[in-house]
Amino acid sequence: MTAPDRTGHPADGRGHSVVGDTEAWTWDPAMSAFPIDQVRADAASAAPRYGDGVWDLAMLNHGDTMDRRNITWAEWPERFREVLRAAAWTMLNQGLAEEMVGQRTIALAQWPSAATAFNAVHSWRVFARWLNTERPLVRRLGDVTTEDLRDYATHIRQTRNTYQARAAPLLAVARLYGCLWTLPPADRLPPPPWLTEGLIPFIGTPQGGENKTPPIAPETISPLLTAAIACISDFLDEYGDTDDLVLPEGVIYRLQGACLIVVAYLTGMRPQEVLSLDRDCLTVLTRPNGALRYEVRGKHFKGVRDADGRHISAGQLREQPWLTIKAGADAIRAAHVLALATDEHGHVTRDADSNLLFPRGRRRRDGRPGAGMIAKQAHRRIAAFITHVNDGLAAARGWAPIPADPQGAVTLPRFRRTLAWHIARQPLGEVALGVQYGHVRVVTGQGYAGRAEAGLQGLIDVEEMQAVVERLEEVADERRNGGRISGPARERLEAAISRYDSQYAGSKMTDKELRRLAKTPGMQVYDNPRALSLCVFQRRTAACHVAPAASSAERATPSLDDCRSNCANHARTDRHIQGLKAERAGLAAEVEHAAQPIAIRLTDRMADIDRTIADHEVA
Fold first, then answer.
1. Which one of 423, 446, 469 terminates a domain?
2. CA-CA to 22 of 20 to 30 Å: which in 106, 155, 247, 264?
3. Share of the chain above pLDDT 90, in %
4. Is the pTM of this model over 0.85?
């Protein structure tokens, strides 16, 4: 088939954008469905022809961790099947119409990734089925009117719960419009009105938090991480230097689950980044002070495109390594040994030419290309590890069982969000073995320093500001109920509450609004349970050793484990004062039996508490 001309855009009198002058079209069923130079080498012989009933878009992905992406054309409504097939071919082989690229209201890439194309074509099926049901007189796409498209948008808004779920089908229709330029006017949609008006008039505004991946509950992640680190440590003690290990298949399976848990959690990497790691990804460096630095080198995928704007599905080596702590490095070492292991049936866990840290295994049943695990295989291993711990190992070792997470299955995307949640909200909490989340923040933050896409740091900022919002709401409620605020930062805290109440109270804030709030002076309010105080952070008045920013994308933060009683950033509410009164009662009981030097220190602390309580009661 000769590629249609992209020039010439006369109007056809019906509001359609007409490109080219072809009024009849035929497609060669024997021509390739995909651009030949974009098909992965190990799938070239199986690549579909235009007329084939199934197109597997995974063949266009050059990574090792993508599941099959089948378009089974028999599932598309017959009335629109061939025009949608033609649009799909155009999208993959010739791209979006140039007039669509760079739209101000809606940004669509000229060359979508395989996953984006797959999702778009499936959304076209939803649209075609709606036309079949609601517009039975529409025989061709050229019969669709602008009012029909508005009605479809209303249908989507009424049947989808979140902004993203509503946006996706409308963006897909916009992409369909931009992929019909090779066809005659009778088979072209009118321009979707959201191309000029934007999405918000049709589907509403995004609501804060509605699309966030939920963090794993603290009561789940704590015993899960403890068990995973312990099992990895035991494994390395026994088999760490073994190159030709033979283990039962189930043991390999669940230990890989433990390694996935720890690597994903203690690097902050995205799932595809974890699953694409090579066995030689870990480098251990010794710093001048003798401390060890654990670097993890691998590929990143988000936003990676070539000079033509095509997504580089194989990924690119990240210029700057991720950093982790010793427990993360140990998990990588254990996964390396497991990747070379053989099970009791003589099956190795990898392809002969694969260097992946998390290989898919040799016994292939799904027919997909790629030598790596896909996400659902990783999730099964994580589930198998949790089951093994709860079925007896926890009781035998004296560990707490791992409770089910209220938000559902423990999956790879949730670890990154969970790490950000803990770093932001429990910086003095312990990850494992005495390592605090504050330390993990510094380590992982250095792994993102200097990058335009701050990644994990962006998640941490959002979680921190969400915690700030919750604190401000809590203090505001206390104030409305007659509660007091005291301390040198009292006025700044009240100003922060007033500002929040006037601008944001009563609404769910989007991530964009939270990031804007993070940059607003006077709005960084941290809770420090150990000091029984709020920190209304202001760098120039901070008495602590301020935690430095690891990159230009990161804000300086207080060192909550170095909190000083003479700091001008302290502010306390009635809740903190109740805690101080309880502490004083404990000190009073202790001082009666303490040796004199200790008794003097305890008495001085009681006097400090008395002054703080007195100041609060007259505030």
1. 446
2. 106
3. 50
4. no
